[in-house]
Amino acid sequence: MRQDGLASLFVGAFSALLILSSNVHAEAGIANATVEATSAAQPATPRLKAYRPATTTAGNNFIVPAGWSLTTNGDLSVLEAPEGNSWVALVDVKAKRHDAAITEAWAAYRPSAKRPLQDIISGPDKDGWTDQRIYSYQTSPGEHRTVTAGAMRHGDRWMAWIQDVDNGVREKRSAALTLIMEGLLPKGYSRESFAGRTANILDRKHIAELTAFIRRAQQEFGIPGVSVGLVQGGRTVFAGGFGVRELGRPEAPDAETLYLIASVTKPLTTLMLGKLVDEQRLRWDMPVTSVFPSFRLGNADTTRSVQIRHLLCACTGLPRQDLDWLLEFERATPATTLAALGAVQPTSRFGEMFQYSNPLAAAAGFVGGHALFPDKELGRAYDEAMQSRVFDPLGMKSTTFDFRRALSLNHGTGHALDMDGNPAFAVFDINYAIVPLRPAGGAWSNVDDMLKYVSMELAGGKLPNGSRYISSAILADRQAPNALIGDQFTYGMGLMVSSKYGVRVVSHPGSMFGYRSIMLWLPDHDVGAVILTNADQGDIFWTAFPRKFLELLFDGKAEADNEVEVAAKTMRERMAAERKSLNIAPEAAAVARLGRQYANPALGDLDVRKQGTGLIFDFGEWESPVASRANPDGTTSFVTIAPSFIGKEFVMGQLDGKSILSLRDAQHEYVFREK
């Protein structure tokens, strides 16, 4: 739900790392730079209208995304984003070692670039590549770019790549970047395919191997608790838990333990809407204003174009704007959530690209609830619609949107790693921000209930007693592709579908503060799984578990174990590198220049107070200690270090003689002015 980057969503941990490999501080690049051209360079291709396969000089395969252009110059291939200020360079190198390969790649791409190296990490052996390393470069916040590079080997041939990308483009075109990196395959290599195979039965041996894998990942990443469920052939073959529900307490999680499932709520919301379509109360192509006349999005023309399906498809081009609801939610309601959409205009045409919007998904649920109960408050109408159309019919007796109820029952407490890489309690109060947007990620559920949902999907809309719950055609509508996320990976309506390994895997992950979850199923093989965790590090299961699941079902090559091992090492190295750049006791001279109260029209008030040798930023609804960092451009940043909210960067500055703090996400900047 929180989503640190769309590339993380079941497209492969290493591919996500390629796009998001720089930490928060490394959001920078070379301003106004252009690729040096020579007379030998091939003219750039026109902006492509569709995705197109291509090869490097050495015959390595890649994909040019729609809207991008391609320029070649000997062993150098440069893909340029439609915005014109972001590039991915692919270089066939003759060097035999990583550092030499990176040096050769920079010499080909931009020989004048001089960037300090921030860190180097290793990547797993994957997709025919071995000996992978990723290089991140130090930058300043004002540049607002991410610059990374990598080198990898196939046999005796080496390949290097460089990403020099504006952060707004990086978020907006995360699907295109994922497609480029996942489509980068060695010459003559074909990705493993399980097409045409029959899935193995999940017998005692396979279940033991799968649960052993889960426990290894849990220990490697310091995840306190995990609950797991497996279903095959219409019956639950495993449901249980490992670890503890809360650090310092002995109680173990089980199949009844409740977790905040975050964005796994979205498929449940779209199921409710599907029921209303099945009942002919709605149509997917119905204008939203015909159901909810006061709905607004951007301008009048955009508003008229929005159909029910557009609220669910992540294909409207609406940019992420999560800080607005995460930092100012005390007085937020479902009505204010819908009203806020009226001030947001999509950044691309409908259906052009994938962009993930939590407020728009929340609107889908509230509009559906209003269609069913038009006289009730939006939140209550949604809750009752979900209860009557989803939870009660499926027998999901424990699933709830009531935080107080969930926290009074058998539940997992949220955790994250602290700045030293140790498991700690996550900042929990920020999770209440999802209540006014709960159709997008506010449900609490457990393995037992979620397996009932997955079983219904696998049964094509039938319940265990054989009765028809929903039309199979409606379920299929929710899986139909609306936007491309990555290589053979699409987004439907609240559901993701991957065919990367030759079999269809339907899934959705979830992410809130201290909680990670994923559910998935193989509709053509009658098998599915649910994993719920009580720690941020649980997102390793978004990528590693689906691969392990396929390996066991189809006797695939062993890749997932190595992926976990490398990802755990990378996580520790990245946290250590970030820790070194921060002064946990903030630099005194910088603190002396701070005001005591700041405000931003969208994000509300920010109070600054000292606490011993430390410093606290208080956002009203919750607070975080902050560290300081000196940036290469001479500015100073204050960086949040509360577990689960590490890395939000407030850059000090002056405006009209007053102290300011600037906070950015990928596509927006928020200036807090001193009161």
Automatic annotation (TrEMBL):
Residue span, Beta-lactamase-related domain: 212-538
UniProtKB keywords: Hydrolase, Signal
Enzyme class: hydrolase
InterPro entries: AmpC-like, Beta-lactam-related, Beta-lactam/transpept-like
Pfam families per UniProt: Beta-lactamase
Molecular function GO terms recorded: hydrolase activity
Taxonomy of the source species: Bacteria, Pseudomonadati, Pseudomonadota, Alphaproteobacteria, Sphingomonadales
Enzyme Commission identifier(s): 3.1.1.103
Gene3D superfamilies per record: DD-peptidase/beta-lactamase superfamily
Protein name per the record: Serine hydrolase domain-containing protein
Organism superkingdom: Bacteria
